Amino acid sequence: MIVYDFDKTVFLGESSTTFYRFCIPRHPMILLWLPVGGIFGLGKLLHLCDTRRWKEAFHGYLRVMPDTEALLEQFWDRMQDRIAPWLSEKLPQGGLVISASPEFLIGGLCRRLGLDYMGTRMDIRTGRIQGRNCRDAEKPLRFRQQYPDAEISEFYSDSLSDSPMARLAKKAYLVTGRELKPWPEPKNSSVAH
User: Fold this and answer.
1) pTM for the whole structure
2) Which end of the chain is more exposed for a tag (fewer CB within 10 A), N or C?
């Protein structure tokens, strides 16, 4: 099985903020959530709130959007040129996307590409996270729950925080822009005697 991260890997960008910007001209009132997301973002940087609270605050704008599903379809129609170019040769083999981004957001593109997916379970109407944020060490836990015996032949991600997933793969690749590099070996932490 081939497994991919989503943002800056399959999709060349950060999907949550890109979708938010896409929605602004259609629902300008969501600009009211920008300061809230900024305050919680600063709180996250200062370790005053966790990623979950920041993510829920940012996605709070979903509460005033009556047509999120329709906008998602339009969004992915327009984002076809933001798919990683190297991905086309892998798609016939299928695969799985596992991401910290909301499932409702990544699902539209993954279905179009014929990829299975799992991400952070978030209520599309409220922005509330259901369960745990699907990132870092949570990714392999979720993967093993759904695919207990699966072998990962290849793994692709832009972030070293995905090292727990990379360790499950026979081969892992770090995505930097449009380039693929072998996953860096962990630094040797042994102390010389």
Assistant:
1) 0.90
2) C
